[in-house]
Structure formats: C-alpha cells, structure tokens
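seq as requested:
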Amino acid sequence: QAQLVESGGGLVQAGGSLRLSCAASGRTFSSYTMGWFRQAPGKEREFVAAINWRGDSTYYADSVKGRFTASRDNAKNTVYLQMNSLKPEDTAVYYCAADRRPYRLVVVTTPPDYDYWGQGTQVTVSS
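struct tokens:
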C-alpha cells in the first residue's frame, strides 16, 4: 500500500530553519509532481510548494517564495522542503502529497489535484 510519511517538524524560533522530509513507500512517485501543503488551526489547507517529477521545476506560494526550497531525490523516493527565515505565521501542520497524474507538464497547486497524502508534521514557530 502506497504511503507518504513526513518528518522533520518541530518547534523553532522565528528566523530559524527546518528541513521537512517526505518518504514514500509502497510504490515509486518518481513520475509524479510532489506538493507541500499546510494547514493552520481554523484555516483551510493551503498550497506551499511543488516540484515536478523531473525535479527541474518548482513553484512556490508567494508567502514562502525566497525562504522555502523544495527538492527531491527520486533514487530515495523522498522529497524535501527546506524552510529558512521561518515566521510565526508559518506555524501549521505540513503535508506532502502526490499529484494524481504522472508526467504532468504543469505543476498543480490545488488539493484536489493530489491524491496520496501524508499524515502531516507539525511546525511551530515562536516569536
């Protein structure tokens, strides 16, 4: 059974950094765009970043552009989200997800475009 498992979340002070990992098992996701989303209490799940299946194209929400970097290692079936200059408003549960269509040429950014989801990892940024 395919599974995505996030790790790397935690508590960090504003201005600090965290690196999230998303390890896939049960099948390979090397042919799929992988996305990162987050959900803060009382808010809807929002797009954060995505990286295409080849790893040569990324897309970011305006709120994280210049601070977050998505990457992937298809040999390890793992994607990463490097988060720098963290702000209290980055506090949320972070989820990774796999595009429901392989080899998509355009990076998609809405939750319905993704089918497999991880369980999430909590990121808390203190001021």
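The longest strand covers residues 92-102.
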